[in-house]
Amino acid sequence: MSDEHIDEISGVSTTGHEWDGIRELNNPLPRWWVITFYVTIVWAIGYTIAYPAWPLLHSATKGVLGYSSRNEVRNELTAAEAAKGKYISAVESKSASEISADDGLREFAIAAGGAAFKVNCVQCHGSGAQGSKGFPNLNDDDWLWGGKAEQIQQTITHGIRFASDPDTRLSDMPAFGDIITADQIAQVSAYVASLSGKVRDASLIQPGAKIFAENCVACHGDNAKGNREFGAPDLTDAIWLYGSGETAIAAQVRAPKQGVMPAWVGRLGEIKVKELAVYVHSLGGGE
Amino acid sequence: MRDKTQLTGLETETVNSAKTRKPLYAARQKIFPKRASGNFRRFKWLVMTITLGIYYLAAWLPWARGPFAPDQAVLLDLANRRFYFFFIEIWPQEFFYVAGLLVMAGVGLFLITSTVGRAWCGYACPQTVWVDLFLVVERAIEGDRNARMKLDAGPWTARKLMLRLSKHTIWLVIGAATGGAWIFYFADAPTLVGELLTGTAAPVAYITIAVLTATTYTFGGLMREQVCTYMCPWPRIQAAMLDESSLTVTYNDWRGEPRSRHAKKVQAAGQSVGDCVDCNACVAVCPMGIDVRDGQQLECITCALCIDACDGVMDKLGKERGLIAYATLSDYNANMMLATAGGSSSINPSLVRTAGGLFSDKVAHFHVSKIFRPRTYVYMGLWSLIGLGLLYSLLTRDRLEVNVLHDRNPQFVTLSDGSIRNGYTVKLLNMIPEPRTIVVTMQGLQGGEMSVVGDDIKAGRSFAIPVEPDRLKTLKVFVRQPADQIHAPAQTFKFRVEDRASFEADEYTATFNAPEPPR
Questions:
Q1: How far is A129 from chain B (nearest CA, A)?
Q2: Is A140 close to B413, i.e. CB distance below 8 A?
Q3: Do the beta carbons of residue B68 and residue B470 sit within 8 Å?
Q4: Residue A287 falls within a domain, yes or no?
Q5: ipTM beyond cut 0.95
Q6: B152: phi then psi, degrees, rounded to nearest 5
Q7: Which of A49, A189, B385, B451 would disulfide-bridge A249, Cβ 3.0–4.6 Å?
Q8: Are A82 and A140 part of one and the same domain?
Q9: One domain, residues A272 and A161
Q10: Which residues pair with B247 in a beta bridge?
Q11: CB contact (8 A) between residue B454 and residue A106
Q12: Tell me: the pLDDT tens digits for B236-272?
């Protein structure tokens, strides 16, 4: 430390620190700054009394205002639920087709159902509900168990071939490989394929029709248009869950694959299921 | 002995002068600009009245737009994303008009600067205008230059406290009015003023007023010339925009030097003497605290108040006005060559005058033709081109639009009869504040038909749908084409929307996807 030195230009004394002729001015902190600083200290003391702050052995001081961030989240969630409340109660009290017919309610149900679909349904039906082999496309107009909003709701609620739900959609196509011969399978497959397209050997169609009449009409109907009571598919249309063409049909006749869908009401609740039904119904194939 | 035409010289020290400039850490020296009077001062009052008038009052102008749009002439409705300017309504996607106007303002500033120098700084810049306004208040309360200097140097008496308190209070009120006027451009002004006074306005309104009050008070009242000198980038940019034909406020030392307070005495002694009597009137009025006689300086905002001050003195002395005047560098240089006999001697003002004491014919004066030179032609051309482009675009812009988003997941759906369906989100934009019925028609795609989700509309190839005023309507449209009509995996067709009442129409070319044929 050297002796007192006053800076010429500003008239301020220097701290005595000097680097290569550059001296440090000994300016005091501005008074407003110092006052603000002390105010923040006082404020901080009040703050730690008012709000949770001081750590204790197992918890922390609660603060006299009783604030808690968990409570705040809870309140916000309650408020959000309350805001949705009027829609939720409307969804609860109305049927799926009534919801579909109401512009505002439909919008709400589609948003809620769409979100639930993305979490629970995309694993099998695909993110665009487009399905894949063995998993139905929900955008189209071909419905195994019915395409009205209530029918869709019923399917989602109780599932398909879901053993633990007594009301589940149930049907069982026998494995015809054990019942009819391989030649007969080829004939009936050719007949079914001919209903919606061309076949390789037209001579098989005639005997195939006979076999169909004997074995298949009970479920698939006289005209092969299917039966939604049993989830029996329409065999005359362009949509094939397990593939089109004689070979794929023959495989399905011999040892049919049959899809299973869980019952969702236990997991999602009735309201969510209803919203899902409205969403699926809105995808373009709803009846 | 004093000459009777001799004026009392002001004992003035130049605050900002290159000769006495101190390091930047030295405390700021206060500037006490004296009131000026004259043509430029009058012009500045006028500019100030107009600019402040526009700023404070424009939000209150009404403009009838019918029952479906606000009736405020200038309104930036951020909540609804609509911007209203008299007869123009802009949607967010049309914001390029504002960008275009800003580009025009930029080029316009180049044009102004290259012709009349820093006119923006001197007359129209908000900093200049508000500092001027704050100085009016300061003068009204504390008096003119000398009184203010005396008050500032004097001890803190009750009177000084009173004066200072009232000055700062009025400054804060002006600041609050400035912040207050700003927010009226963003909401319905009469409603907002009621909400403000009853304390029910949105918090952002109060915060905006507080912030703008603080900035106005600090910049206009406390910082003043420091904003221009240290904070603003424009003085630096403008230095590069000036050329030898740009008008700037110039001290014509070719007729002023050698300056003397005792002209007659010096003349009697046989020495040459210029017109400048060194009265320092130009220094006293300068709001930037500079001496214009030191030549072009970064600090000079060319407010021209020194011209008024000097002209007043010249009038009293019976000499020609214009010792300080707007002049171009080329004229100044020519006259300087004349006064210094081609640069061979020091300034001899008698060289620019005839024997009769009048200016010689060789003295260069500014001529309007100097404004028109290649550089300004380029600026003017660019400016008008952008302006005409914007105007054309504005007059021919669509007020009815259609935007289409093709569903991507799934891209297409095969239906039970083998036909293919594609989904589209169709957005109809009715951009006028009147309800309209829009007819949507599909063109192309043989055999294709539309259906609209949720609405009981018989769609087919064409349907009509009402759209609310000034709103966008989103439709989910399914388009279906029979299997036997599909001839390619990707076909294009058009959505055409029409308002049959006004013949407005728009089209969107969409793609229709179908499965690839099996290979």
A1: 8
A2: yes
A3: yes
A4: no
A5: no
A6: -65, -40
A7: A189
A8: yes
A9: yes
A10: B328
A11: yes
A12: 888 888 888 999 999 998 888 888 888 788 877 777 8
Q: Please count the other Cβ atoms lying within 10 Å of the Cβ belonging to residue B204.
A: 11
Q: How many CA atoms lie within 13 A of B403 on its CB side?
A: 9
Percent helix, strand, coil in chain A, to 5, is: 50, 5, 45
List the domains of chain B with CATH numbers. Answer: 39-239 (no CATH), 243-366 (no CATH), 400-513 (2.60.40.10)
Closest-CA distance of chain A to residue B514, Å: 14
Asked if B410 has any chain A CB less than 8 Å from its own CB, the reply is yes
The token pair at B441 is: 């028609």
| C-alpha span between A128 and A137 (Å, rounded) | 9
Is the distance from CB of A157 to CB of A264 less than 8 angstroms? yes
- Provide φ and ψ at A191, rounded to 5°: -65, -45
Residue ranges in chain A whose pLDDT is less than 70: 1-3
Which of B21, B22, B218, B416 to mutate: most A Cβ within 10 Å? B416
B:418-477 residues touching chain A, CB 8 A cutoff? 418, 421, 423, 453-454
Q: Evaluate whether A156 touches A121 at the Cβ level (below 8 Å).
A: no
Stretch (H or E) spanning B84: strand B82-85
- What the block records as the tokens of A262 is 């869980």
Range of the domain at A20: 1-67
Residue A215's identity, in one-letter code, is: N
How would you class A113 by CB atoms within 10 Å of its CB: exposed for 0-12, middle for 13-18, buried for 19 or more?
buried
Q: From the CA atom positions of chain A, what is the Rg in Å?
A: 37
A9 vs B26, B414, B421: nearest CB: B26
B residues 20-49 near A, CB within 8 Å?
Answer: 22-23, 25-27
Taking alpha carbons only, the member of B201, B182, B181, B177 closest to residue B191 is B201
Nearest alpha carbon to residue B14 among B1, B33, B27: B33
The whole-number pLDDT of residue B519 equals 63
Lowest mean pLDDT among A127-136, B16-25, B367-376, B510-519: B16-25
CATH code assigned at A224:
1.10.760.10
Could you report the per-residue pLDDT of B10-62, keeping only the tens digit for each? Answer: 667 777 787 777 777 777 888 999 999 999 999 999 999 999 999 999 999 99
Round to whole Å and give the CA distance between B158 and B161.
5
| Residue-by-residue DSSP string for B98-137 | HHHHHHHHHHHHHHHHHHHSSHIIIII-HHHHHHHHHHHH
Whether residues A34 and A113 fall in one domain:
no
The amino acid occupying position A140 is D
Cα separation of B139 and B147, whole Å? 9
**Cα–Cα dist A153/A275, whole Å:** 9
Residues in A whose CB is inside 8 Å of some CB of B read 9-10, 25, 103, 106, 126-130, 137, 139-142, 196, 234, 237-239, 282, 284-285
Whether the CB-CB separation of A220 and A228 falls below 8 Å is answered with no
Distance CA B261, CA B252 (A): 17
How many C-beta neighbours within 10 Å does residue B471 have?
14
Residue A34's φ and ψ, nearest 5 degrees, are -65, -40
Residue B445 region, left (φ>0) first, then alpha (ψ -120 to 50), else beta?
A: left
Cβ contacts from A onto B, under 8 A: 59
Q: Which two tokens stand for residue B194?
A: 């009621």
Instruction: Tell whether A14 and A123 lie within a shared domain.
Output: no
Q: Does A30 map to a domain?
A: yes
Report which residue type is found at B516: E
- Long-range contacts (CB closer than 8 Å, 24 or more residues apart) made by A168-175: A168/A263, A169/A145, A169/A231, A171/A219, A171/A230, A171/A231, A171/A232, A171/A258, A172/A258, A173/A219, A173/A232, A173/A256, A173/A258, A174/A256, A175/A254, A175/A255, A175/A256
Length of chain B: 519
Q: For residue B292, give how far its alpha carbon lies from the nearest alpha carbon of chain A (Å).
A: 25
Contacts of A103 in chain B (CB under 8 A): 454
Angstrom distances, CA of residue B439 to CA of B150, B242, B403, B509? 78, 58, 14, 16
Domain-located, residue A101:
yes
